Amino acid sequence: MSYPGYPPSGGYPAFPGYPPTGQETVYPPAGQYSYPAVPGGYPLAGGTYPAAPPSAGYPGAAGYPAPGGYPAPGGYARAPQAGGMPPYPGAPAGPGFGVPPAGPGFGGYQQPPAQNYAGSGPAQIPVGYPSGQAPSPMPGPPAAMVQCTQGTIQSAPNFDAGRDAEILRKAMKGFGTDEQAIINVVANRSNDQRQKIKAAFKTMYGKDLIKDLKSELSGNVEELILALFMPSTYYDAWSLRHAMKGPGTQERVLIEILCTRTNQEIREIVNCYKSEFGRDIEQDIRADTSGHFERLLISMCQGNRDENQTVDYQKAQEDAQRLYQAGEGKLGTDESCFNMVLASRSFPQLKATVEAYSRIANRDLLSSIDREFSGNVERGLKTILQCALNRPAFFAERLYYSMKGAGTDDSTLIRIIVTRSEIDLVQIKQMFTQMYQKTLPTMIASDTSGDYRRLLLAIVGQ
Asked: How is residue 174 annotated by DSSP?
């Protein structure tokens, strides 16, 4: 399956500072090609990353196309609006988000360490997860992986959970609801702080904050606020569960989450999925998918991608040759070879492989995947490559197509804004402006309304 207009004629925006200092002359010759600097680029080491020749690779200067570029197969049709907010932990079951993302899936790269399940200590665990089970501690990702990201939401200074709980109680007490007071609190507290507010609310008033919020709110603003109060790992596990629950499967949700999280985050999600839903995620994936797409997702679930940030340019050359021989260089396709390389190599290593491939094949690797694969496995493989090239650009594109055209894919809009708000939403906003010549807040303001609009704008940092 091919995506007309992809990659863009102007090039895929790249990150500066690559390869690491001292390795510039290993492969290819230093200074032969260079990428322009992009705000919030990756990684921080000095030097420039070798780009592909202009005829075959990613001439990164021009950035993304103007609005109207990147048409997807069938034109990014809008899914019908899902009914109602998903059940929050401990709340009665009900219909979930249920809307598959509108745009093509591609993933993210290095992220900061996953947030705690619920607050900073064991005392908060029960208010975040119904089971009240604390996850096994995981080692954090390499230091190089926590750089070059910035969220629009930071932990509030001088935080007082009891004071915030009192504000929320007053906002919901009596006739009517002070939505602005609720927005002021939730949009300016980290996820960790929101878990502490929930615990303080129950301690102070003997009531469940989430149930009170559900009784006072409705529609998209309810869905957004309740998503903000879900512990981040639980929210990912919940999203995966509901992507496979019931008839049909939301494959793009599976790709978006499983291909955009670090090893540590993947392992915590898998553990949470088991403890909270009593199910094995691999078994659910096997029941809902098949073939090479199933194998790719199972590979992602292992959380075993190499996270060494040092690039082996000789291996990149060998992998590029291997991929060429498995696809363009033969009749038919060796899908397992693509799965092996793309599922196991680090993102910096894959970026080097993309550049080496363009010189071997006189074609960029994304285009070759277009020619050799189709359907969900194509989207999954391209997700992995695109996350190696520019993670913020992916999320910027997903946000754009969640709002472009008639209707809004609110579930995708909410999920991305919530999950990236403390990680790299600042960089996503920058890429959005570069790619579409309009700001993310401007498009949100024109596509949403009321308290829903005000809360979204408060989160993205209007």
From this structure: S
Residue that the structure tokens 């080692």 belong to: 139
| Predicted pLDDT of residue 54 | 40
**335: which 2 tokens?**
């899908």
Sign of CA dihedral 11, 112, 426, 400: positive
Q: Say which residues have a Cβ less than 8 Å from residue 372's Cβ, sequence separation at least 6.
A: 327, 328, 333, 338
- Residue 161 is predicted with a pLDDT of 97
Mean pLDDT of the chain: 77
Residue 136 token pair: 């096994």
Distances (CA, A) of 3 to 59, 271, 322, 324: 19, 35, 24, 20
Give the three-state DSSP class for 248. Answer: coil
Cβ neighbours for 54, distance < 8 A, ≥ 6 positions apart: none
199: number of CA atoms within 13 Å, CB side?
22
Distances (CA, A) of 66 to 8, 71, 145, 390, 438: 10, 12, 31, 17, 9
How far is the CA of 256 from the CAs of 107, 187, 372, 381, in angstroms? 6, 24, 21, 11
Which secondary structure element, helix H or strand E, spans residue 163, and what is its range? Answer: helix 161-172
In 3D space, the residue among 382, 357, 386 whose CA is nearest the CA of residue 51 turns out to be 357
323 in Cβ contact with 357 (< 8 Å): yes
pLDDT digits (tens, 9 = 90+) for 215-253: 999 999 999 999 999 999 999 999 999 999 988 899 999
Amino acid making up residue 54: P
| 400-421 average pLDDT score | 93
Q: Which amino acid is at 418?
A: V
The confidence band for 144, taking pLDDT boundaries of 50, 70 and 90, is very low
> What single letter denotes the amino acid at residue 236?
D
DSSP code for 145: G
Q: What is the pLDDT of residue 213?
A: 94
